[in-house]
Structure prediction request, 244 residues.
Amino acid sequence: MKFFCNNISFMRRIIMIVLIVIIIILLLFTRSNFRNKRVFNESDIEQFIIRKGTNDDKVISFACSVDWGNEYIDEMLDIFDKYDVKITFFPTGRWAAEYPGIAQKLSARGHEIGNNGYYNKSYENLSYDNAYEDIKKSDTLLRELTSYDIKLFSPPSGSYNNNIIKAAINLGYPGIILSSIDTMDWKRDITSDLIYKNIFNKLDRCDIILIHPTKSTAEALSNVIGDLLTEQYKIVPISEMLKK
Prediction:
């Protein structure tokens, strides 16, 4: 009888230990899940959309989205070097995976690397989980390829919904980067003169100017940068402008 009672007592202790372990696991999972899903006030979501810097300095930043246009990148990099200008490149993950050498070159030449998502697709209708997975996949790849501490995320084509913003915030980004000036250089019939006008007709302090690696952009860059510097604008990567 004593042996039987001891067995029951032992089994109860085992059951209690198992239950405690299960509770601890559930608590850790809940805590992790809560940490990765910050609660947002929908009315405040706009504050996480970054289109410009927040000061009155004469400073601007170029945001160069990259998913194609490899043949123009070296020419653009040489122009940036000529004027000692650093910008922020936003490559997609799929592009960086296909052209790792070029992606590494952007960082090696001293430019900031941002995240443009893995696939060059519209984010407008993405769910939170799909957005989180796509942004994180690109973030991981870009960090491994470029050894750069990725701090900024810009959704491809500037398309987004609240799920995109929430996913970006929960991945450690300050929000999503959009542009205050779109050069329209992605249009097939755009010319270097039109790109120049699209910039200077809207130019203001702390603008984020969207460009892509295109023939017309490469042709316009020297005049654009030269005149920006003549007008005493400082050209810096986006992260540097946001610090001021």
